[in-house]
Amino acid sequence: MRRRPSSSAEDEDGPEPATPNTSERPATSKEMTPPKDPPRGPKQSLKPPDSKSSRETRRTSTHEQRNAANSWSPSVVAAEKTPIAGNKEAVEDASEQHRHSRIHVRSPWRCSFLTLATSVCSILLLLAIIRAFVTLQLDPKGCAMSYMRPSFTKFPDFDTEHTRFASKYSLYLYREGGVDEDTRVKGVPMLFIPGNAGSYKQMRPIAAEAAHYFQDQLRSDPSAIENGKRPLDFFTVDFNEELTAFHGQTLLDQAEYLNEAIAYILALYHNPERSQRELGLPDPKSVIILGHSMGGVVARTMLRMPNYQEKSINTIVTLSAPHARPPVSFDADMVSAYQDINSFWRDSYSAGSTSDNPLADVTLVSVAGGGLDTMIPSEYSSLTSLVPDTHGFTVFTSSIPNVWTGMDHLAIMWCNQFRRALVRAIFDVVDARRSAQTRAQPERVAALRRRLLTGMEPVVEKAALNHEPTTFLTLEHSFTTMMSHGERLELRSIGQDGMTKAHVMPVPSQPVSEGGKFTLLTDQQLDTGTDNGTIAVFLCSVSPPPTGASVLSYVMNRDIQSSSSAGSTRLACKNAAVDVSLLPASTNQSMNAFDDAMPFSYLQYEVADIAENQFIAVIERTSETSNGWLFAEFSSAKESSILVNKGHHQLLINGMRRKLPPGRPMMVELKIPEVHSTLFAYRLDVDRQFCQGALESFAPFLRQYIQEPYESKYFVNTQGGNINVHGISPYMPPPLSGGGASEGLSLQLWSDPTCNSTVKVTLTVDVLGSAGKLVMRYRTVLAAMPVLVVAIVMRKQFKVYDATGVFISFSQSMDQCLRTSLPMIFTALTFLGVALSKATRGPWARHWLSASTGTTDNAVDFTINDLLLGTSDPFFWFLVPLFGLITVGICITANYVVLLVVNIFEFAYTRTQALLSRGEDSRRSPTGFATTTTQQRIYTTGALLLLVATVIPYQFAYLVLCIVQLMTSVRSLQAARDISSTQAYSLCNYTHATLLLMLWILPLNIPVLVVWMHNLSVQWLTSFSTHHNLLCILPFILLVETQSTGNMVPRVTNRVRFLTNTIMFALALYAAIYGVTYAYRLHYIVNALCAWLFLLHLSNGPFSLARLGPIVPSIFSLGCGRSTKKRP
């Protein structure tokens, strides 16, 4: 007697078979578990012979078709014999009961409580994250509108003789109406590069400000003209709003065109008919570049192109440009271009000598908009992994003096405060007396730092310290206040004595005040020597100025002739006004840092830097009493700096609380090294008591800042605010120096030192606000992780199918995976993420990476954050299960949405087919599948391949295949409902699963497809070679064509089936580990999977894969050895 096969042959993979009970159920009950190793039958297809029978006739024979479809089951044979000797009515009832049971098992709409609960939790989490991103931790908007009178002149003679892109792109010259309408070039050339889908007209506000600034201020300033300041000739290019961010070849084409445009622009200055340049000025040999968004990346690409003219670019300013990594990784050319460009810049600056560095004379400044920029993460604008601080830096607009506000991706082009600061910074580096049109490289960097940074950064040089004394200060003792060591200078009413008065503060010795600072804060403008400021600050020493130096005598209240009396002191001094930092005004009425108010003046020196000076002299120059105030003091590091050593866990649980005592210095700094991640958002509360005694001269205000990139935010009249930083971010490469990327968050608090009141500072983690930060950093996860889920679910479907012959529905397979596979996989990925984050910090990991890449152990691995979560911080381990839960819910929802669409199309298709087939001889088979011959299918496939090879990109063919697969799913659903057999529903589930997988790969192909369609709209028909790779689409075509004929993939019961599981598991693993960084490769892996499935389809033909079983290594047979018993 044969032993009945066990239902646990594939443990939980298959549907639970019904166990027969002869005492309660008739022998006609049909088992759904087939033999484990049935003999391979003929090719499995739902396409029967041609028949002219009506739909009604087919439906009456449904019972016989089901029996024929299941004729390989022994229990089915028994069921067929029972009606001869049994009760016919009982048999029909049992058959109907089995039919409903079987349909329930295969119903694609089945949704268990676990599936429903997972979907609801996932959607709620996703909505909460999106809501937090939209509504929480938002920076205030403070940009003022700008106005201009633009005029553009096109250069039609920049044609195909100069560039092959003349019919696609255009070059223009901007002139401001009413200021400069002469189209001849006369000044310093500057070129604007628009970004992704950007217009050439976006540069109007900046170009207009440049024209007005030179016309209104510099033109009438003899010293500016003498120093080489000339107007800017603003050029701009029209790229027809191309989508540069989505296509690497487009980026390279634009870079090639721009190099040719620069050669043409420089040639204009040699043409007397086109140039009105002053005599004596050299012809320009370099162009200043201004790039917005992807235009900044194109600017860096230009120096890598073969047609780049050496030294034709030496200054690049980029606005909201994603330098560190591509915005999306859907295009292979884009990822490859980024890798090549960034490697070129890193290698150049890593060269040992200047002669080996092609970028030695290039200065690069990147300006980021901050949290308001929702197009790209602002940390992508960081240059720390590309350029040393000697040649460039990254600054946020909220840090720039007199700007002090963040801005979105487009506002950075028209914001009035920012354009004024940017134009002045550009003119600071202009020098038309040199052929390069700019100052020397070190001077350029220093000038840009002074204009765009706060002045409190360590890299900003203190200009007064490097200058020789230029002022001979004679102090009359009767009008001078000599202060003692450690005494604070407090002036609440400047000029109240009605005369010029000096306050001299002795500089403490270095051992006494190690790490100490000198700070001065006032609401008055400091006198620079060329204006009439009410306050002058000098760094003085008793020694006289150098012999032969140009000295300005500064005498107190009497004629210089009598200044040598015994009651006077002479000091050689340097004016400290050149080192002043502007801070936003803070009063009891202040609302935001960008309010229209006169800024405060602030000086800060390290005591060690000014140790060579004996005194600091503060001069009141006004003879009239004003409400102005000034505070100056020396403070030790112990008093003014507080280090908070709290990690993520402590800040998350307990937060940070500090109480500042009444006798604190005017400026107190809190340093929190562990606060540096972009994934955290915080809430700051400042609780200050009322001022005791006199009224506050100014309201307390606070500055949050981090170093590299230079980001500062100000909170005036502060009671707290939202704290978020753009420091260490997922998937960002490490710094070029290889050291730590950030020193953490610092909070500087200024308060009136005479108030003698306490201040409580509290910093807590904003959990919901932190959730919103995930959107910008991990949005590509929603394109990669669903592929993992779909691959695991399809893997389960194939395992069940190979074991039982039933291809279960996607929803049923998802339900089983939720109980077994998916939790295990996400748990394993969680441990993998923690292991990777810790391993990358160890010396053995550096040794292994250096051995695999051929570099030294000390070399910086810039791909170290490309894996999984993109971070080396194990604290964020919980993101893997979080993203897993969200993507599972998205996949479940997407499955039912696609099911709904397929059912709607099936309903419309069935009704349309019924109307068209009335009274006609339909050429369709009873199952609704096409009855085309093999030759016709070969012709169709060949024609599509020919189009891909010559005209259309394979991305367009992929879109067509998705539509064809949708219609195949519709017809397979119709056939399943008509035939109502296990085989029919298996085919329906198989085509549906394939459709889902293809739809999740579709977003990777859409961007390139949009670029191709845009090129057609501008009549640019030149194709890109990478778009016509037949191997990238051929397996998809073959599989979709095979499924469109109604062919079901055959079961594989030998060792070859493990290869199917391996390919799908490899797809899932790659989607999890590298899916975000190299998303485009998912298309290639799915393409390989389609090729394998097509080979499985061929196994029913003359090229059977059954013979490959013995060839597969024995490792696949683990657990399937001698102890495994074959089913009868």
Structural summary, described in words:
- It is a single chain.
- By secondary structure, the chain is α/β, with parallel strands linked by helices.
- Helices cover 37% and strands 14% of the residues.
- It has an eight-stranded mixed β-sheet with strand order 1-2-4-3-5-6-7-8, sandwiched between helices. Strands 10-12-19-14-16-9-15 form a seven-stranded mixed β-sheet, with no helix packed on it.
- The chain is globular, with a radius of gyration of 38 Å.
- Residues 1-43, 47-91, 94-105, 556-565 and 1111-1128 have low confidence and may be disordered.
Offer a quick outline of the entry.
By secondary structure, the protein is an alpha/beta fold. It has 28 helices and 29 strands.
State the main characteristics:
single chain, 1128 residues, alpha/beta, seven-stranded mixed sheet, 28 helices, 29 strands, 37% helix, globular, disordered N terminus, disordered C terminus
Radius of gyration: 38 Å
The order of strands across the largest sheet is 1-2-4-3-5-6-7-8
Mean pLDDT: 82
Quaternary: single chain
> Roughly how many Å apart are the termini?
11 Å
Query: Can you tell me the overall shape?
Result: globular
Share of residues in strands? 5-15%
**Contiguous helical run count:** 28
Beta-strand segment tally: 29
Q: How would you characterize the largest beta sheet?
A: 8 strands, mixed
**Helical amount among residues, as a percent range?**
25-40%
Taking pLDDT < 50 over at least 5 consecutive residues as the criterion, the unreliable ranges are 1-43, 47-91, 94-105, 556-565, 1111-1128
**Class by helix and strand content?**
alpha/beta
Keywords: Endoplasmic reticulum, Hydrolase, Membrane, Protein transport, Transmembrane, Transmembrane helix, Transport
EC number: 3.1.-.-
Function: Involved in inositol deacylation of GPI-anchored proteins which plays important roles in the quality control and ER-associated degradation of GPI-anchored proteins.
Pfam family, one: PGAP1_2nd
